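Worked example (supplementary).
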Amino acid sequence: MRRTLSLLMENEPGALSRVVGLFSQRGYNIETLSVAPTNDESLSRLTLTTIGDDRIIEQITKQLNKLIDVIKVIDLTDGAHIERELMLIKVRAKGEQRNEVKRCVDIFRGTIVDVLPDIYVVQLAGTSSKLDAFIDAMGEAGILEVARTGVAGIARGAKALKI
Amino acid sequence: MSGDEELMSGGEMLARALRDEGVEFIFGYPGGAVLHIYDALFRTNDIPHILVRHEQAATHAADGYTRATGKIPVVLVTSGPGATNAITGIATAYMDSIPMVVLSGQVPSNVIGEDAFQETDMVGVSRPIVKHSFQITDPRDIPATIKKAFYLAGSGRPGPVVVDIPKNKTAPGEQYPYSYPESVSMRSYNPTKRGHGKQIKKAAKLLVSAKRPIIYSGGGVIQGEASDQLIALARKLNFPVTNTLMGLGAYPASDRQFVGMLGMHGFYEANMAMHHSDLVFAVGARFDDRVTNTISKFCPDATIVHVDVDPTSISKTVNADVPIVGAASVVLEELLELVKAEMSSGESSYDSDAIARWWTQIDAWREAHGLWHAPRYNTNSDKIMPQQVVEMLYKVTGGEAYVSSDVGQHQMFAAQYYRFDKPRRWINSGGLGTMGFGLPAAMGAKLAHPDADVVCVTGEGSIQMNIQELSTCTHYNIPVKIININNQALGMVKQWQDMQYGGRHSESTYADSLPDFVKLAEAYGHVGMRVDKPEELEEKMRECFALKDRLVFMDIYVDPEEHVYPMLIAPNGSMRDMYLSKTERS
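After joint prediction of all chains, the assembly is encoded as:
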């Protein structure tokens, strides 16, 4: 099943490559990946989604924890949590299509952030499946370019991933 | 800056830091990117440096030194080819959890990424085979980084650590205040020592109530200095003990409770006891594929208790019913106390009758096919048998030698027939299976134990992979003994080709192109001996070991047709499925 793991690691050169390397080296998949420094600049937070059964996820979690640069790992999917992904998508919007696309953007609560005579750039945030649904709604023929950030996630409630 | 801090260049700080860390040996090879460091060593340092003849040998020699002592020496290599030559040795250490600190030179930081002369991304290349790595970005960080490197290498599950040092960070021009940290703490690294109390209690109960138990102990018991604790626990419970290839010596081989090595070429009685057990108590072992055979058929009736310092080793291939993360010595000690209390309590579930029946069964297995119970090879051959060579070696050295090996048939014969009674005596590349390991590893062990017999059991294939180290042995007078079990072929490859490829010996023989090893040894200033008659073996071997101060290369021609048995039947076999000879199966 699909899992969302978040981790805190030292914001140091090489740390990210160790995480990514671990996945290819041990034959695990990364579906999405996002990483950026936190409010504490010495720390980076990395969130990734991967697919595997419980045994594989347990191994991945342990292997991540074993990396010297990694300070803490949590599996967000273990409990209630919020996941968001941001997408910028460039779509054809010409003639009658313009209203249709605009309506669709409204339905998905997206924003049009750039306008050309025959193109819209749409910004959309939400769960990955919501973004997938918007892509489906636009249709293969209407899409010029897709840029997705990968999932960021946070647990619900007072529990926080911090050191 | 406090007044008593000395000013030093990066290179001088590095040299001083190694001394302050208590490093006893540097194994290395100079080159452009490390010239500042070598100059600093020349001017300021008194740590012995062993100039090897190939960087791979530097890593193996450091590795052998560590395995024989538990202490961590340093490997120092230059950038580019120096660094990449060290890779095989780093991977060897990584697979066997051997602590090592490798200092690699790097091109100056301002040209990194420009494909400069002798530039390799060492941190990148070594990333999957190190416990951790650093690149020096500021010379002021050198002392603290060296401290961290040793701490990381030696603690928790040990492993190699690479410190990559751009040339300009060691330049003599700039000076910085030096102080060596006394301790180190890292917020992201806190290896577990004590196991979980409840789990240990659970394990103690399972141990005491087991009826067909086996203790399966690995290299972790040796690395973790837990041999005494293992012996105490096994004796208290009267349980059989099997050691992995990496764990030989952790439990004394000549003890009655030792049932031999397990796994691919393990003892019949060890593999049978594993398969039929109701409790496997694994400590410092990792359920390697060379041990388990087909996972789904592994120990079908056994509850698995697994003690390991590395949580990733637990339930990686075989699911542990009771996982305990902790240092072997600490966990075993706690377990022993609980087991003692449990056994002496009124309602103890310890069933000595069941254990006695279990021993009767194990003894029957031993009698049937045990390698030490009766000769399992042809003792009337007019050719020397490889097993006989190792048995003779055991006899001549009184079982007291440090024995390194290379990889292949000779390695398995050495593991089977040299009965290791003490930890750190058996030095071999178990995980990576690195040919060329034996000679440099023996050098490291001999430097650590100059008065002990140090033997490299090798084959004519493996020895040629690092034979240039005969020159290093001449340079520093390192009188190791080389026992070359010469079957004129890549024996283990040939064995598999005999068994699984219709006897087609694809690229596994080279009899006509072998060198005259006697002359070769002599060319390096050593003593060479050739033996090919069984009746000469003992006399020549005694002669060899009588030459205390000389490296002796014994080139022993053996029966080239001999195979290693037992051998687990793969694929799809369990641990009880073994070939016992060319014609028998279990």
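Two points are worth noting when inspecting this output. The longest strand of chain B covers residues 100-106. The mean pLDDT of chain B is 97.
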